[in-house]
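Slide 14.
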Amino acid sequence: MKAINIILPVLFLITSICRPVFGQHKSDYLSGNISVSELSGSYIVSGDCFFIDSCYIHQGTEFLFDGEFKFVVNDDIIFDGNADENIVFKSYSGLRWEGIKIDGNQNGLVVFRFCTFEDADYPVYTSQNNTSNIEEISNCLFSDVKGAVKNGSGDIYQISHSTFIIENESENFAVKNKNGDSSRDILLEDNHFFFEPGDDGLFEIVYPNYLVQLQGDYRDIRFVDNSFDSLYCTAVKLTEINGEACYFDDNKFQGIPESKRLTINLNNPLDYRNVAVLVN
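Slide 15: predicted structure.
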């Protein structure tokens, strides 16, 4: 009977070490090929993770990166948080994690709803050979990042109701999209874009930064009810754009000179209709 009293505490101690406890819920380790159809709970990311099959991520799921690791997405994936339970991505080790790399090859679907991204230079980006589309980024928070969304292939269709807090350093940005779909619109609605204050507490950008850059072919481009805060940076940059129309409706600009609110380099002239008065 005495032997049992000794063994049980030892077994409990071993179990506690293998499954770290955060608050009132335990965390599992996550790395390598991920082939499950859904994930929920809290995970310590201990290596690069490759989502080789479609996956649904439930609200409240937490990913804690224990090193400079990344997610690589090869198929459909939906990160489906809600207002009460965001899906969280952040550092566990103190090192910056390497983001979510979209590398689909099947015209896949990628969705981010109610997600919080912290401590990564480029939390969402695509590979050169990607053919998946980012259908939606909504109600998300990007904090302490250099470039929140960087898309070089595939398409982005909607970014809405999200906040982008960008580090005040050279060449940083909130959204850079270098590819478009001439058969569909791109919508940016009710987002808040701004650079972190400098060391002096001022929103003064001395680098050639911009908050949003779009390049490529689109049907319509729509900027609606967005807020841009910062000094001495370009709010929106349109480069080598082909499309039918570009709408700027009810956007607000805090501290950005009128000459820096929109810069345009067009392949074919766009029909600028319903362009709202820019508000300081």
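Speaker note: The radius of gyration is 21 Å.
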